[in-house]
């Protein structure tokens, strides 16, 4: 993009990866306001309020690398031999050693590269150059440089050139279910779908030939009412919501007294009544489960169970302690935590240590809940694999966290304040979106060697055969929106995608998992090619795959390396979409920026073009029902080369209602709708497994197709 006459403020912004202009979804050039740029820079710790501050910050940014002995972090691909600049007092002799993850040490050679010294903050500073060898193993290593009596260190992260597909997918394609787990309730559920329901749904699907079940993010939510309904706005992305525990399957339940068993049954009976409600009641479910789980927690554990719990706590380390401490403090003091005494807002402070001691049993309870829920989800994954699935559970990773949550409290030093993550306007969200999540600060994330990011990925990948990364474009750039301003007044901030994607590939490689990137929305042309080159799958939604504004893309033109599906959770199920539900809802909620007639005409033209293509390919008869149309759309997808095909569970039962309407909060019952049939009546997990409609749709996807 060519820049107009550049100001010092714009130069400063660009030096920190902040966009000063961009092209919007309609191809219009937009210049970012100075006010937005200053707010975003301030959130990154860069003062730019006055012209003098801008000039000082700009000068400082030019010498930033020279003020550091070593870079914040070094990320490279396997086989690369990068040079690492070392900045020390001019004339200093240096030695460089790399400490490998395995414990082995490797001495580094100094490259013959002469750079003129500079005076930095009054010190004549020279630059030496170390060359990293090309045979470093994958993993997390430490580079240590010694000069005189001083030393400095930095992380060296070696990532795979490409994430290879699991063996089963290298020569074959696969299909699976996509679902909002909490909405799929069995007769035994306590008001919401849980880990046992996931295992039940998955083992049934495996018998139908499915190879995976993709679920919504199962990240942790608040431990007190009101629980945030959106799984994409969690309190922590590293830890899991204990709401997904199946109480009766915790081993210690078997050792309870008869009276305690009776109490558990009473709590269960109360919670199962929630299955009949029109809307999901997370708070009611958690109230019942928490009461029952506290009884189980107090039960004596066997030696082997104690050892397993202790090993879990040791593996999770300080991150688990911080999360559990936050939960204990929330139960003791309430939310928001920003109203707590100042000394309790620092997780490393002495006051928090004292409170942790005072609330030790409550802290242990929340550590225990994590052990139990992660164990049950890991069990579900093992059961799905044992049932024959090549992948099993595919978990979903949300873009960010709640600003008042555990991660914002514990990881506040790596998050940007005064801004939130969102998305610029696009075809389906014409006013833009503000997701109210604090973004990572790129500089602080690098300074930690990406440790919080690595820890988060490990938890989710450990429980699954694959990971879907929501808005994977956020690993390249994120739309930062200044607090109190509309989403249209944001701007892009660039991240080190080589590091973020590389670490994601490394963690997935070590776990033998695949990665699906949700790459919908406003995408730079080169990003999808980059992700494909690194072995990450993309996402193709049939309604969005068009060769022009109206005509559908032919199935043969789809990407191979992708998860293809007809719909997604931000659109109605397919039967609803065919009936224009997405237009009706957005019109009722005032989310359209064009006249209703224009929206309806364009939408009908697009849907009619798709149905006409189905008829042209003899996939649909002239007198077809809605159920026939849904089946034909899925059959159309089987003609694509896509490695994965996702079948939405709501489509198995003919549901029509959107699970989430972007751009709304309380105006629409987002994330609160249970699975239902075309008539709006709730459908249980048992109902799915005996549904004629479900079996017909699955046959459509699994049957061998005749030659075109």
UniProtKB/TrEMBL annotation:
> Which molecular function term from Gene Ontology is one that the record holds?
4-alpha-glucanotransferase activity
Query: If you read the UniProt record, what top EC class would you report for this enzyme, in one word?
Result: transferase
Question: What SUPFAM superfamilies does the record tag this protein with?
Answer: (Trans)glycosidases
* UniProt-listed InterPro entries: GH, Glyco_hydro_77, MalQ_N
- What Gene3D superfamilies does its record include? Glycosidases
The organism sits in which domain of life?
A: Bacteria
Which residue ranges does the record assign to the MalQ N-terminal beta-sandwich domain?
A: 70-160
Entry's EC annotation: 2.4.1.25
* Pfam families noted in UniProt: Glyco_hydro_77, MalQ_N
Keywords assigned: Carbohydrate metabolism, Glycosyltransferase, Transferase
> Catalyses which reaction?
Transfers a segment of a (1->4)-alpha-D-glucan to a new position in an acceptor, which may be glucose or a (1->4)-alpha-D-glucan
Q: Which residues form a coiled coil?
A: none
Family classification: Belongs to the disproportionating enzyme family.
Protein name, please?
Answer: 4-alpha-glucanotransferase
Q: Which gene encodes it?
A: malQ
